[in-house]
């Protein structure tokens, strides 16, 4: 039987590799994690397992032992976020209503994925005409910033 190398990628790994000592767990999660651990242990050497999470503290200690390498990707700096917003505006062909440096400063601490989610939120509201105003993009960005900073304040 011929074998080929394989990468098995789990995004949001904390959803299935959650700490088994969680007091709020009803037992089902413990069974899921136990089963996952057994399956990982049975994988042949030509299979590489990669897991991604934004909540590393939620992962079970036994899960961590299955990985030989851990890479932490920090949140972008303000300079990186400013450049990302500039590139996003070039890609879509219009401004987001506020200076990229202002957006980067106000959304400091968010990941690139969250910055993109914010920018797409502004675009959606612009297309839908929410909120209605004369200075549309600026007002929409300000409205979204208020929502996002309230939503992520505990994380930022």
UniProtKB/TrEMBL annotation:
GO BP terms, alphabetized: proteolysis
Top-level lineage group: Bacteria
Keywords: ATP-binding, Hydrolase, Metalloprotease, Nucleotide-binding, Protease
Keyword Repeat: no
Protein name as annotated: ATP-dependent zinc metalloprotease FtsH 2
Lineage: Bacteria, Pseudomonadati, Pseudomonadota, Gammaproteobacteria, Enterobacterales
InterPro entries: 26S_Proteasome_ATPase, ATPase_AAA_core, ATPase_AAA_CS, P-loop_NTPase
Principal EC category: hydrolase
Keyword Protease: yes
GO molecular function terms listed in the Swiss-Prot or TrEMBL record: ATP binding; ATP hydrolysis activity; metallopeptidase activity
Span of domain ATPase AAA-type core: 4-74
Family indicated by similarity: Belongs to the AAA ATPase family.
EC numbers, comma separated: 3.4.24.-
